[in-house]
Amino acid sequence: MERSSSGWFGWRRKKKARGGGAGGGEEEEEDQHKVVVDGSEIRELVEDREVFGMLVDSKFRQLDADGHGRLSVQELRPAVADIGAALGLPAEGASPNTDHICSEVVSELTHGTSQGEVSKAEFQEALSDILLGMAAGLKRDPLVILRMDGEDLRDFVASSRYEPSAAAIFSQVGSEGVPLRQCLLAALEQLSVDHGVPPASDAWAVENILEPALQQLPADQLEQPASRDDFFRQLKELLGAVADRLQEQPVIVAHTENTYDGSGIKRLLANKFELDKLLDSVWRGVTADHKNKASKECLIAALDKMADAASLPYYGAVKQVDAVVDDAIKLAKVGDGKTVDEAEFKKLLTDTLGAVMQQLNSNPVFVSTSTVVHEPLSGSALFSSQQQGAK
């Protein structure tokens, strides 16, 4: 897996202040390490009907190899992945919200078709729904794309934060007889992108950055029991080696942070007009098979339809929130096959949301994810290529 150190990050930058010259003034310095993907470029693309139509035509012709004018469901996912990458989205798996939307729309699109195939018109409509759904999810929960080249890690090691952080880590992982290697590996797992360390949960980062850096330390010392002083010294050496590796081969990381505390549900429940409108929409979307039944599966599907408005993750995306939802459904005493009418179904949904809100308000769920991704192309490049083709 190759990592590029130029390209996308050359045209979208954040600003950071630095000390200036005479008079104590400050000037702005460009920093290419951080980009926020909020879905705005995706919306711009879909709303430009001419450019979006050309994109659909091009992608459909590329995928419809036999020219019979229809695509299989297996061909939809790579099409969405390619376009998503061109718009600045990381690979599938980096954002549970956008992954869920893609899976749901593809499933609904091919539901009931005899051979699981779609026409170009259906493909364009589905692609629009998928991308707009991704844009909505990213607007609510933006992805921060970080280019890690060792600079932030060196700043951390040289800062006043290093010793307190190292001491806190050693107090948790260091004990009598524990080898230094084990302590250092645990430290890499606890340090995060905020410190400039790529995620130790990622196999590529471990194989290409973290493990080679660890191998630069004296092998005989790594197997000895770790003292506090040895740990401090060798951790600093290790992080320096990681920074060197990152300088040689920068890593692109998609990072998200979310706190689910029930505040979104509270706002929704307080707005009766919006709540009633949403409940009506959800009830209309309930399939005929589930129209008079309040099964757990049906209720979860309905809650997913309300997730954006309630600032909740989709079921299956965050296991801690899933547990809260499961408990709330138990409190509602939902049983498979229980017959309910429209009013009872809406009340069940409202009561379940209220129970979820109370639990999250008492015990908020904080979720942080970091995923190593391929460097995507810029949305601007995509627009440019499509517009040039129109001339």
From TrEMBL:
This is EF-hand domain-containing protein. Residues 1-35 are annotated as: Disordered. Residues 60-86 form the EF-hand domain. PANTHER family: CALCIUM-BINDING EF-HAND FAMILY PROTEIN-RELATED, EF-HAND DOMAIN-CONTAINING PROTEIN. The lineage of its organism: Eukaryota, Viridiplantae, Streptophyta, Embryophyta, Tracheophyta.
